[in-house]
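Note to self: user wants both folds in one dump. Writing first protein now.
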Amino acid sequence: MKIVNFTASAVLVALTFYILVIGQALLLPLVVAVAIWFLINLLAAGFGQVPVGSRRLPRWLCLVAAIFSFIALGWGVINFIGDSIADVSRVIPAYQVNLENRLRDMPFSAYFFDSETGEFSGFLLEAGWLDLPGLFTSLVGSFTTVITSSGLILIYIVFLFLEQGAIDRKITNLVGNSEREKKVRKIISKINSDINKYISIKMFTSTLTGVLSYILLVAVGVDFAIIWGLLIFLLNFIPTIGSIIATIFPAVISLAQFEGYTQFFIVLGGVGVFQNLIGNFLEPKMMGNTFNLSPLLILLNLGLWGYVWGVIGMFLCVPLLIIIFIVLSHFPQTRPIAIMLSSNGNVGHYQD
């Protein structure tokens, strides 16, 4: 019987990911819409904490303010990125040529160029680390995917807000049992609390890293410093790999832009220090033991969602993993899986 259950579970998981891949055009905008809907509600809750005299703003006013704030911020960022794409796309080929010329002069140039053809090659190029036009095209492609799906995303968001008021009633009618309803609401509350905490802390640490890196890049004289600062901010939402790319990419840009190596080492060392101090000391201290997830699992999860939904999947991988972990930890049948997903085998925090 256990073998049958295991086989059925394996088939269900495989079928789920197959549907996620082939249904990307429909499902990815829905997931992005849910994420934006969640962020707007999070911002509205933040507005609700702001005192106005001896009172608090009413919920509906906080929600309206959050929606308009999000629209204004999104519109500004989209316009800025759209204008910047044209500027960067004009100079990025020249950066690539300069980078290749710089690498030819280095003692270890054999690692970057084919000995027979003399063309730029090697593992780092094939992996995309030194292919500046390729990296830029990939990032622009992800941005374009979101923009082209913006109409569908907007429709989803509107319907999510229309359905928002009926969620509590639907949960009550769906469960139909007071004890089970209490457990379901406990799981939802825990998911909401942990994702709120994760996003709030990540927003603060990513903003701090991006601002400090921007100040450093301006001081060094790197072109388009505000774009790279924004990119560093965004990449810090991608676990592990995002921080690495956010450190290497502006350093490679400085290597391609300047003649000497001084600026390269300043940018590499400075951004690297910011990433390490904030990512390895400040962020874990702020998060504490809330997210008891295995680092290896996070890395594997990153690769999985990157394969399924590309760069956007990488941004969503940790919140999705938090949801899965919390749900699995609340049921005796799936708790062993949650234990395997945890960093220390203790899932008691999620069963309080």
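First done. Writing the second protein, which came from a different request thread.
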Amino acid sequence: MVSIKGLVIVILLLQAFSAAAFSEVGADFLKAVRRGEDVTLAKQRLAEIPWRELAAKLDEDSKRLAFWLNCYNAIVQDELTHHPKKYNEKNAFFSAKLLRLRDLSLSLDDIEHGILRRSLSKYGLGYVGRIFVSDWERRLRLEKREPRIHFALNCGAQSCPAVYFYRPEKIDAQLESATKSFLQQDAKFSSATNEVTVSRIFLWFNGDFGGGVGIKGLINRHLEMGLNKRTTLVYREYDWSLQVSKYADGN
């Protein structure tokens, strides 16, 4: 026999899924976190989704990007708001299975490096693939590499980008906005020395951006600094101090 409480939960879950597309579930989770609301229902909605069905519904990169960026940021904000001490053991935090689907549990590392970075090693500077790639990873990951994710993922550190609420139909414009905003605050050019100081993100994920040439091209496209092949890239130290609730203004 199904209890009344269990039946109510099932009905709520069915209503929730009929009211929002799969690609919006992550955004709803993130919005609940920002508002300080109970996220139990949001997590239950995720826990009802079989990963194969999710892979079928997220059938293009715009949907994959919006869903996984929102989920990643929601998990980080939720966990570190309520359990800040977890941040003291970063390797354990990022490798813990914190997102649960019906038949699959994922870590933040799985989402970032397996799905969003398309099976690239966490430590390979963007040039080395993950050794073991499972079936779920092949079917859930992006079809094409997207370096702008690094200006959208917030791991809880002071130096991380601000958090946006991503939507599939606006994802390209939103990633452009997030990238430009981050670079405006972060990239500092000295014409006297022909050096540009940038986030250490560009060093850790160098290959994601296409190396030095790609990094300079990205900066020139967004800030028009006139960087050239002789411009030296200087990577500033990353501030790992914990900072939650770093949301983009007006978002």
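Dump finished. Worth passing along: Residues 16-20 have pLDDT under 50 and may be disordered.
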